[in-house]
Amino acid sequence: MAGRVHPRQLAFSLPHAESLSRDNFLEGPANAAGLALVDAWPEWPNRIMWLAGPEGSGKSHLAAIWADEAGARSTAANGLTAEAVPGALATGALVVEDLRAKEFDERALFHLMNLAREDGAYLLFTGREIPAALDIDLRDLRSRLRALPVVLLQQPDDQLLRGLIVKFCADRQLSVDETVVSYLATRLERSSAAARQAVELLDSEALRLGRPVTRALAAELLRDA
Questions:
Q1: Are residues 27 and 138 in the same domain?
Q2: How far apart (Å, rounded) are the C-alpha atoms in residues 121 and 95?
Q3: pLDDT digits 0-9 by tens, 101-111
Q4: What is the extent of the structural domain holding 119?
Q5: Pairwise CA distance, residues 16 & 35, whole Å
Q6: 65 with 148, same domain?
Q7: What's the CA gap between 125 and 131, in Å, rounded?
Q8: Would the pLDDT of 20 be above 80?
Q9: Which of 47, 121, 164, 219 has fewest C-beta within 10 Å?
Q10: CA 104/CA 96 separation, integer angstroms
Q11: Which alpha helices (H) appear in 18-97, and where do they start and end?
Q12: What CATH number does the domain containing 109 carry?
């Protein structure tokens, strides 16, 4: 007689809202310059600023804090069109997120910068690279971007990494103890993206297996990763 096949429990991926408020921003040496930029507004050295840093370093969170403070609208760089520029600047402040070479309309961005200058509007650009590292075809835009003041974010230090792990668990309503946090903090790549991915994996696998999130589970998952 054949053995009974037990169906595998499915883990449904449900949306988890990550709080991007000022109260939920974790400050550390790696992102202190970015937070200082947000706090200094409107006394910026230039009405157009560039916030650069690796994936998961806090650019979007800082941009959201500033947008709330300045009444700014937000747009993805790859979705910006020349036709949309006047409306995007309607509130006098705009966040343009994730600027990557060859993935946005250069003429639309140049038009945006010109109109912002004429109207005295504020712009906050975010990107993983500094402007000088981008391959820009439009010479005037390339020159304009490279002249912008840049604020750099770094990867988190030990204390900030631990705080991020706790925050990502809280965002998913995961109950974890100090042994789990310590285990992850000493074995993960030192980046916010790695911490987020590890917590997402722990959450989905704990649900699938019907197990609590423990150090033993974390060890199994990281060993198999």
A1: yes
A2: 11
A3: 899 999 999 99
A4: 22-152
A5: 25
A6: yes
A7: 10
A8: no
A9: 219
A10: 11
A11: 32-40, 59-70, 85-88
A12: 3.40.50.300
